[in-house]
């Protein structure tokens, strides 16, 4: 059965609304975000060979953990997931460009680097979804500032409306976190 945060989040995400999910660790926030997104990606019938969702985590170790958690969901939907961070091999980096995934898991720093690659920018023109995990780790530091700029760049690159979803276990100011996730002038639902 669905957890409380999943019951609240899935209908909002299905309506393609920016939102931040605030719930304790282990409450199913990741699944609340990725399962409806994966379903919508599968239903969209867009041609493959482009990155349609980006999942940002603050740590490489968390990239790998998220990958292990979502790969089965993605495979069942016929979607591909890849990871890109500072330790990604050259072979995997080339594969990202030649055979791009539907979903890319990355760190804020690696995302900034990716946005300097002209070939990759072409692959981001159909981007529809951005998930930012561990918002509380990023909101009030330089890494978060750089991520905010990258998120705005992604908005400008994509030819589609981009939906942003934030995930956080604890956060003191949810309104500030919502603005961080969605950008200053965009509406963001707060789901607690």
Would you kindly provide a written description of the structure presented here, covering whatever features stand out?
The structure is a single chain. The chain is 49% helix and 15% strand. By secondary structure, the protein is α/β, with parallel strands linked by helices. Helix 4 links the parallel strand 3 (81-84) and strand 4 (103-106). The chain is globular. The mean pLDDT is 94.
Keywords:
192 residues, 9 helices, single chain, 7-stranded parallel beta sheet
How far apart lie the N and C ends? 18 Å
Give the overall shape, derived from the CA principal axes: globular
Which structural class is indicated by helix and strand composition? Answer: alpha/beta
Note poorly predicted spans.
none
In short:
This protein has nine helices and seven strands. The protein is an alpha/beta fold.
Topology (elements, then pairings):
Elements: H1 4-14, E1 19-22, H2 29-43, E2 53-56, H3 60-76, E3 81-84, H4 90-98, E4 103-106, H5 108-114, H6 118-123, E5 129-132, H7 135-138, H8 142-157, E6 163-168, H9 174-182, E7 189-191
Parallel strand pairs: 1-6, 1-7, 2-4, 2-5, 3-4, 5-6
Helix pairs in contact: 1-2, 2-3, 5-8
